[in-house]
Amino acid sequence: VQIASLAIRSGNGLLLKGGKEAMRSNTILHKVITDVLPDTVGKRLIGLVTSRDEIADLLKLDDVIDLVIPRGSNQLVSQIKASTKIPVLGHADGVCHVYIDKSANMDIAKRIVIDAKIDYPAACNAMETLLVHKDSKLSPGLDDILLSLKTEGVAIYGGPVAHELLSIPKADSFHHEYSSMACTIEFVDDVQSAIDHIHRYGSAHTDCIVTTDSKVAETFLRQVDSAAVFHNASTRFSDGARFGLGAEVGISTGRIHARGPVGVEGLLTTRWIMRGSGQVVNGDKDVTYTHKNLPLQ
């Protein structure tokens, strides 16, 4: 319903494909949507695809479909990206990091880490990897955070350093997105090591630094090349509604053109309209350009 409203608001036609487990509900919702559309808009603006077999054929229609927005598992998104020439808006992975710097307020760090992991573990903006400055590896504050995670039912796995130091099971991969009550922890030398780790193993979704050092925070915010980068705030804030965008069509980790939570503005492009009376460029000879802002209509 939200995505249909975004399509209508941005003047886009839409083909919806929901999960098979909600097929009957989707059919009713589609009828509600089309019933309220006025004739000036057209009932056929919002279509419903019910068969999975139709998807492969639709993905071949790059001459008539402008954009595909897949929402679902890594496997689904990766498969769609690999099987179409149509531009794809979205992300396959949500490997989000929280980095606790040596100057972090550990009470704030604990609040952020707990929220980022357990508020909604299956969400793409949930924390999957906790990075900790090496100077904090034996601190009571870190012990408290790890105990709180375990108390909440979170399984903790370690990178090579944390595995040895904390005597916890070794993580299979830093690329893994748990999407459940589990996470990886690893120790890093400094903020630059944290940034390098994020760029090597992250998915450019949402990453956070917890620190009281403004210079370190600024380094992290400027250098981490993710769609959303936070200082002292939970990764769970990476959301269209929470960003004030209204309804959200998805999250884009691409660089062009929409990035981060995508609302109605991300579904709009620009048209340039020129009205003249015979003007020509002629190498810009004897032409003076006067630029001024005009109100959008």
Automatic annotation (TrEMBL):
Residues in coiled coil: none
Domain of life: Eukaryota
Family, similarity comment: In the C-terminal section; belongs to the gamma-glutamyl phosphate reductase family.
Gene: P5CS
Alphabetized Gene3D superfamilies for the sequence: Aldehyde Dehydrogenase, Chain A, domain 1, Aldehyde Dehydrogenase, Chain A, domain 2
Listed InterPro entries: Ald_DH/histidinol_DH, Ald_DH_C, Ald_DH_N, G-glutamylP_reductase_CS, GPR_dom
SUPFAM superfamilies: ALDH-like (SSF53720)
GO-annotated biological processes: L-proline biosynthetic process
Catalytic reactions on record: L-glutamate + ATP = L-glutamyl 5-phosphate + ADP; L-glutamate 5-semialdehyde + phosphate + NADP(+) = L-glutamyl 5-phosphate + NADPH + H(+)
GO MF annotation: an example: ATP binding
Keyword Calcium: no
Name of the featured protein: Delta-1-pyrroline-5-carboxylate synthetase
Keyword field: Amino-acid biosynthesis, ATP-binding, Kinase, Multifunctional enzyme, NADP, Nucleotide-binding, Oxidoreductase, Proline biosynthesis, Transferase
Pathway assignment: Amino-acid biosynthesis; L-proline biosynthesis; L-glutamate 5-semialdehyde from L-glutamate: step 2/2; Amino-acid biosynthesis; L-proline biosynthesis; L-glutamate 5-semialdehyde from L-glutamate: step 1/2
